[in-house]
Amino acid sequence: MAYDDSNIFARIIRGEIPCSTVYEDDHVLAFKDIQPQRRVHVLIIPKGHYVDMTDFSANASDAEIVAYTRAISRVAEKLGVAENGYRLITNTGVDGHQEVPHLHFHIVGGEPVGPMLKRT
Ligand code: 5GP
Q1: How high is the pLDDT of residue 99?
Q2: Residue 7 above 80 pLDDT?
Q3: Whether residue 104 lies in the annotated active site
Q4: Residue 118 pLDDT more than 90?
Q5: Is the CB of 31 under 6 A from ligand 1?
Q6: β-strands 21-24, 28-32: how paired?
Q7: CB 8 within 8 A of CB 100
Q8: Is the CB of residue 34 below 6 angstroms from any atom belonging to ligand 1?
Q9: Which helix H or strand E contains 40, and what residues bound it?
């Protein structure tokens, strides 16, 4: 899937839409989800144009991959969820129910998040 730079997270990176930033470095931006599902719900995105984790893991530079991975622990510490734990989620594609076509991890916690997937 080709990257569409009109998606909402591309617009947030460009500063066209506001966000509540919790962490930023050269390669990464983390901000609060607009519809939090738990007390803590933050999205971590690479600033580079990657549709999803498949695209990122295949095509991102080593520097981007290192920065993105390191940012997860920094954000978890900053949010105060590192000790009690949290859920890290990335939805990919149609079957993964991905709504925004720019790679993002959800960090969800601050309270128990419940069990993993259940077959519906
Ligand atoms: P997905 O379903 O793609 O994994 O998750 C997309 C997430 O982006 C959802 O949790 C949704 O609430 C969040 N979201 C969508 N639009 C915006 C926005 O404009 N600002 C912020 N901060 N979050 C958004």
Answers
A1: 98
A2: yes
A3: yes
A4: no
A5: yes
A6: antiparallel
A7: yes
A8: yes
A9: strand 40-46
Distance CA(14)–CA(24), nearest Å, equals 13
DSSP 117: -
The pLDDT of 69-90, averaged and rounded, is: 98
**Active-site residue, selected from the candidate residues 27, 41, 104, 106:** 104
The answer to whether the beta carbons of residues 35 and 16 sit under 8 Å apart is: no
**Atom 19, ligand 1: residue with shortest CA distance:** 8
- Tokens representing 70 are 């390191």
> How many Cα atoms are found within 13 Å in the side-chain-facing hemisphere of 22?
21
Tens of pLDDT, residues 8-40: 999 999 999 999 999 999 999 999 999 999 999
* 5 CA → ligand 1 middle, Å: 16
18 touches ligand 1 (CB under 6 Å) = no
Query: Which domains are assigned to the chain?
Result: 8-109 (3.30.428.10)
Q: Is the CB of 99 under 6 A from ligand 1?
A: yes
40-46 vs 28-32, strand pairing mode: antiparallel
Q: Can you tell me the distance from the alpha carbon of 42 to that of 17, in angstroms, rounded to the nearest whole number?
A: 16
